[in-house]
Design brief:
By secondary structure, this protein is mainly alpha-helical. The chain has helices at residues 2-14, 20-55, 59-67, 75-98. It has a domain at 27-98. It is built from 4 helices and no strands. The two termini are 31 Å apart.
Length: 103
């Protein structure tokens, strides 16, 4: 349903339709999601720093080593891996919401 509504709006705008109320509402929705994602990212990065301090390894280095199978599947590493995945998903979402190109 949501995708259909978004597709319909996109088609309307592509056909030249413009409405300041809808423009403002959409902008506010995106801004609100960015705020939520930024807050979640801060929380996740705090958790990642905790793991980095405990293991004396950056999360990026951990991620590469864990993904390549160089590290064990301990509960601690599994949790760290989950936080890395969350961080990656949030960063990707923020890039999209901000209209940034992926790097």
């Amino acid at each position: 349903m949501t995708m259909q509504v978004l597709d319909n709006l996109q088609s309307l705008y592509a056909a030249g339709f413009h409405d300041s109320f809808i423009d403002n509402a959409l902008r506010k929705i995106v801004e609100r999601q960015v705020e939520r994602d930024e807050a979640d990212l801060q929380r996740i990065e705090g958790e990642l720093r905790r793991f980095e301090t405990a293991h004396k390894l950056s999360s990026d280095e951990f991620w590469q080593q864990f993904q390549s199978g160089e590290l064990s599947d301990s509960a601690d590493y599994m949790e760290w891996n989950a936080f890395c995945k969350m961080r990656n998903r949030i960063r990707a979402r923020l890039h999209i919401l901000r209209g940034e190109s992926a790097t």
